[in-house]
């Protein structure tokens, strides 16, 4: 399984936005306003083409991961703290629901193997595990600089576990 380029870019851009807006994400700056960054700056810092960055800002805003405003002083900021945004949230904002196979959603698939497939009943469990792994990785973890990460390692958390 591989993320699409657009999903990969979204992860990179959200990580840059988290670093730009501060790890607290929702803490006001000294002037009382939460920090913002614009798509042009994010594109320049990440190497993502500006039209793609603008498209991602739109999708991530629609999904409720970014707040955006236009005009003088406009830009984007995280809608939630980085620790409350998961890799699954970002991927789903760009790609839609995480589904390993089309038969995970029984409403919409047209698999030619359906009649003889012995695996389909198990794919929901597989899909849940993959989504759970992605949901266990927070934007806070992804946005650490190499210097901040140092030699500390972390592992994804799963439902009911504490972050490590």
Q: Give the count of structural domains.
A: 1
Give me the side-by-side strand order of the main sheet.
1-2
The ordered string of helix (H) and strand (E) elements is: HHHEEHHHH
CATH class: Mainly Alpha
What's the architecture in CATH terms? Orthogonal Bundle
- Fold-level CATH name: Arc Repressor Mutant, subunit A
Which term fits the overall shape? Answer: elongated
The number of helical elements comes to 7
Helix content: 40-55%
Low-confidence stretches: none
How many beta-strand runs?
A: 2
Q: Kindly, what is the distance between the CA atoms of the first and last residues, rounded to a whole number of angstroms?
A: 25 Å
Structural class: mainly alpha
On the 0 to 100 scale, the average pLDDT is: 82
In angstroms, what is the radius of gyration? 18 Å
CATH-defined superfamily: Winged helix-like DNA-binding domain superfamily/Winged helix DNA-binding domain
Strand content bin: under 5%
